[in-house]
Amino acid sequence: MPRILAALAVLTLLAGCARPAAYVVLLDQPDHPGSAVTWTNQAGTQVVATPGSGTGADRADAKPADVFAVPEKDIQDRFGQAIKAQPRTPKSFLLYFQFQSTDLTPESKALLPSVLDEVKARPAPDLSIIGHTDGMGDAKYNYELGLRRAKEVQSMVTALGIEPRMIEVTSHGQSNPLVPEAKGKGEAKNRRVEVTVR
Hints:
The protein is an alpha+beta fold. Helix content is 25%, strand content 26%. The longest helix has 20 residues, at 139-158. The chain is elongated. The relative contact order is 0.14.
């Protein structure tokens, strides 16, 4: 079962409803299919694995209720503001570079507007930009090339007005290949920058 994230479950205390006084609701999480939330107390355990459903209990010594549906309107009425306040899911992009160069490949140039749109769509973006190289050349040179690639992408992002203090730029050089490569054989998929927008 995938890791249960705090954002998946919402706890509320309600009085005078047909539902238990305290209950959890599993929210729809398209990025985490198969998620579940578990309610456990002194009297037992109940697992909720269907988004829009819940369980709970009136007291700590009362058996957890059978799983019940929670209408979307109730979820929005009760938790809408908290749901809207959650940060968006981080999004990652891979941008590829020409051999021994800081020039993006044509395919990655075409992807750049999507990266920039994702940055602009967030009220306070936080970025991680990591430069990588293939295994051709020595480690010191490749570290520096990876850093130059990352800084090239950073300059494209700061040109949008994003504060440099919100961008972390690093290089892994040749030390973290995406694709294994034979000695002396460079792999194009390793000549990349990973951009994660949070």
